[in-house]
Automatic annotation (TrEMBL):
Coiled coil: none annotated. This is FAD-dependent pyridine nucleotide-disulfide oxidoreductase. PANTHER family: APOPTOSIS-INDUCING FACTOR 1 (PTHR43557), RIESKE DOMAIN-CONTAINING PROTEIN-RELATED (PTHR43557:SF2). One of its GO terms (molecular function) is oxidoreductase activity, acting on NAD(P)H.
Length: 403
């Protein structure tokens, strides 16, 4: 593939990981990495945490430094948005009219935030959080308000709870509105939800579940929100974090098959059109560990799947069998989740009141996932139980003295 050209659309963690894996696995051809943003490719997890504090320099969020792209001869093009694909001619058209020929095209376009009509993107003191510009704008508004100002967060997922922890530390009165029965209903176990809800309450966060906003009125300063229980809530600042939608439109316009909102790919990342692949959050992919097609929205998946698809492009495919994982930092707690945290039952190892413990998630007797709270070292040993779908007696799992 020495004379081949791989064009990667999207310079998030999936795209950057794919570019790196191509070089590390011997690809000698041209790699063109397209980013529609004008900034160097950066990490997204800090946007809801460190990036909201002025003391953290943005350079620390970069996925790789400039030397990485030069050393690996990766043609990184910033402010380059792909707008069309001519699959027959093997051409990608950019927003400025430039046409790039490709031998292989990799779509790593990621996701965008779900929006609510009541809260238009870009409206004064209303925020969604996906890009570095989003984080900068939110931080500026937070700085402009006095201590004790009110922030309303719509959605008690990872983003919502991380912003709540950051905002509370900066003196905001925070209310979280969640339509579901509990926080982290999609990504966390009931035990973790209860633990984090209690910690947020200790820090003054008001979490209201099974509640939604039915009306918004803009006042001279701030907003007045009418809730589904007929109560009203004042908000100086509003942050919406209700999940994401895959950015599959570029592929769909080219006739690429989509499924459950993402780009449908096989076990090696191939789409329905020859020489076009997809990786990361946008891909509805096959996972050997689960034996099914799925779409994942985590940093670790994007990194691993980008590398996996790059190897497939080079003709050295491996089985994608990651059980999935994510992490979140809230207050003094580092929380890591491996595998499926929504089993049929849960077993706690350790004492939550000590601030460090493990939760085993079981499907019947099989360990399908593990949540570790301030227990990184133990998780390193235990995650093999998830990879192997192990089954152990619950009394052994619950006993911290048993290796």
């Amino acid at each position: 593939m020495k004379e081949k050209t791989v064009v990667i659309v999207g310079a998030g963690i999936a795209g950057v990981s794919a570019a790196q894996a191509l070089r590390e696995n011997g690809f000698k051809g041209q790699i063109i990495l397209l980013s529609r943003e004008n900034t160097m490719p950066y990490d997204r997890p800090p946007l809801s945490k460190d990036a909201l504090h002025t003391s953290t320099p943005p350079a620390t969020f970069l996925l790789r430094d400039e030397a990485f792209y030069k050393t690996n001869q990766i043609d990184l093009r910033l402010g380059a948005e792909a707008t069309a694909i001519d699959a027959a001619a093997h051409l990608v058209t950019l927003s400025d009219g430039t046409q790039l020929p490709y031998s292989t095209l990799l779509l790593a376009t990621g996701s965008r935030p779900r929006t609510l009509p009541l809260f238009p993107y870009g409206a004064p003191f209303i925020h969604y959080l996906r890009t570095s510009l989003d984080a900068q704008r939110l931080r500026q508004d937070m700085q402009s308000l006095p201590k004790g100002a009110s922030m309303v967060i719509v959605g008690a997922g990872i983003i919502g709870l991380e912003v709540a922890a950051s905002a509370t530390a900066q003196g905001f009165h925070v209310t979280v509105i969640e339509a579901g029965e509990r926080p982290l209903a999609r990504s966390g176990s009931p035990l973790l939800s209860s633990f984090l809800a209690a910690e947020h309450t200790k820090h003054g966060v008001d979490i209201r579940c099974q509640t939604h906003i039915i009306d918004v009125e803009k006042g001279k300063s701030g907003y007045s929100l009418t809730l589904s229980d007929k109560s009203t809530l004042a908000a100086d600042l509003i942050v919406v974090g209700i999940g994401v939608c895959p950015e599959h439109e570029l592929g769909s316009l080219a006739g690429i098959e989509a499924a459950t909102g993402g780009i449908a790919v096989d076990a090696h990342g191939r789409t329905s059109i020859k020489d076009i692949y997809a990786a990361g959050e946008v891909a509805f992919h096959y996972n050997v560990h689960y034996g099914t097609q799925r779409r994942d929205e985590t940093w670790q998946h994007a990194a691993s799947h980008g590398e996996h698809v790059a190897k497939a492009i080079l003709g050295v495919p491996d089985d994608y069998s990651s059980p999935g994982s994510y992490w979140t930092d809230q207050y003094t707690f580092n929380i890591q989740v491996v595998g499926n945290p929504l089993g049929t039952s849960e077993v706690i190892r350790g004492n939550p009141s000590d601030g460090a413990f493990v939760i085993f998630h079981l499907n019947d007797s099989v360990i399908c996932g593990i949540t570790a709270v301030n227990a990184t070292r133990e998780l390193r040993k235990l995650r093999r139980l998830v990879n192997n779908s192990s089954a152990l007696p619950q009394d052994i799992l619950a006993d911290p003295t048993t290796d």
